[in-house]
Design goal:
mainly alpha; elongated; 3 helices; 62% helix
């Protein structure tokens, strides 16, 4: 079986995208594209946060709100 160049290139692009997504999550950069994809799959008619609102929400979830209240269990 012979694999074409475009197939190999596509697979490498997928691998690098996966590695990049993992690296960004390790350093604390949230995955907006993944969020949009999941929202569209789970709630097709529901709202999707803008990029700025998504980043603010993720920062508040990680570091707490500006008023000092933290939205996590610990």
């Amino acid at each position: 079986m012979r694999i074409g160049f475009s197939t190999v290139r596509h697979r490498w692009q997928q691998v690098w995208a996966w590695i990049g997504r993992g690296a960004r999550l390790m350093v604390g950069v949230p995955d907006y594209e993944g969020y949009v994809r999941r929202q569209r799959e789970r709630f097709p008619d529901g709202p999707v946060l803008s990029y700025a609102a998504f980043i603010q929400d993720r920062q508040e979830a990680r570091y707490g709100r500006r008023d000092g209240c933290v939205r996590r269990c610990c």
